[in-house]
Write a structure and sequence with these properties.
The protein is mostly helical. It has two domains: about 50 residues, Arc Repressor Mutant, subunit A; about 140 residues, Tetracycline Repressor, domain 2 (Orthogonal Bundle), CATH 1.10.357.10. α6 crosses α8. The chain starts with a helix and ends in a 14-residue tail after the last helix.
Length: about 210
C-alpha cells in the first residue's frame, strides 16, 4: 500500500472512531469522510460498505473491552472482581456510545462480534459465580441480569448525559450496593442483622 493510502486509511479509521463513539451504529459514512477531511470516494475505496468499516471498529472496540474485563477479573477478592468488571463495562459504555449499541443491538452486530461478546459473557459468568459462591453477591441475579442492568443504565443516561454527566456513576453505585452481600466482619450487625441469603438464579440464558 502506498504511503498516501496508508495515511488516508489511518485518518479514516481515526475519524470513524470519533463518529462511532458519538453516534454509535447510526454513524454515517459521509460524516466519517468529512471528519477525516477526505472524499467519500476515498472512504469507499478503503471500506467498500459501512458494514466493512463497522466490522473493523467493532473488533477493535471489543478487543479493548475484553482487555479491561480480563484485568478486572483478576482481583483476588471475589466481590472486588464483580465490582471492577461492572465498572469496566459501565465506563466503556459511558465513553463510547458505539460500544453500548454493540452490546444492546444484536441484529446490528457485524460478523464476528457475537463470538467476542460470548467470550465476555463467559468471563462475567465466571466472576459472578465466584462471588456468589463466596457469599458476597446476591444469588438470585444472573450474569445476564448484570449485563442488562448495566446496559440499561447506559441507555438511560445517554439520553440526558449533558444535563448530568455523572449520573451514570451514581446509578452504578446504587446497582452495586444492591448486588453486594456485606460480610459480618465488614457490616454493622445493627444495620444489617444477619447476612441475607438468596436462592440461586434460575435464569440460564447465555
Amino acid at each position: 500500500m502506498r504511503a498516501d493510502a496508508v495515511r488516508n486509511r489511518k485518518a479514516l479509521l481515526q475519524a470513524a472512531r470519533e463518529v462511532f463513539q458519538r453516534d454509535g451504529l447510526a454513524a454515517q459514512m459521509d460524516v466519517v469522510a468529512d471528519t477525516a477531511g477526505l472524499g467519500v470516494g476515498t472512504l469507499y475505496r478503503h471500506f467498500p460498505t459501512k458494514e466493512v468499516l463497522l466490522a473493523v471498529l467493532v473488533q477493535e472496540h471489543l478487543g479493548r473491552l475484553t482487555a479491561r474485563a480480563e484485568a478486572a477479573a483478576q482481583a483476588e477478592d471475589p466481590w472486588e472482581a464483580v465490582a471492577r468488571l461492572v465498572w469496566a463495562f459501565a465506563s466503556f459504555e459511558a465513553e463510547d456510545r458505539g460500544m453500548l449499541d454493540i452490546l444492546t443491538q444484536s441484529a446490528a452486530q457485524p460478523d464476528g462480534a457475537q463470538a467476542a461478546i460470548a467470550a465476555l459473557m463467559a468471563r462475567l459468568r465466571a466472576v459472578v459465580a465466584r462471588a456468589q459462591s463466596a457469599g458476597k453477591m446476591r444469588r438470585d441475579v444472573s450474569a445476564q441480569d448484570v449485563l442488562v442492568a448495566v446496559c440499561g443504565v447506559g441507555k438511560i443516561t445517554a439520553l440526558a448525559s449533558e444535563d448530568d454527566p455523572q449520573r451514570w456513576k451514581r446509578l452504578i453505585d446504587v446497582f452495586l450496593s444492591g448486588l453486594h452481600v456485606p460480610t459480618i466482619a465488614s457490616a454493622s450487625t445493627e444495620e444489617y442483622g444477619s447476612v441475607r441469603r438468596y436462592p440461586a438464579a434460575t435464569n440460564s440464558r447465555p
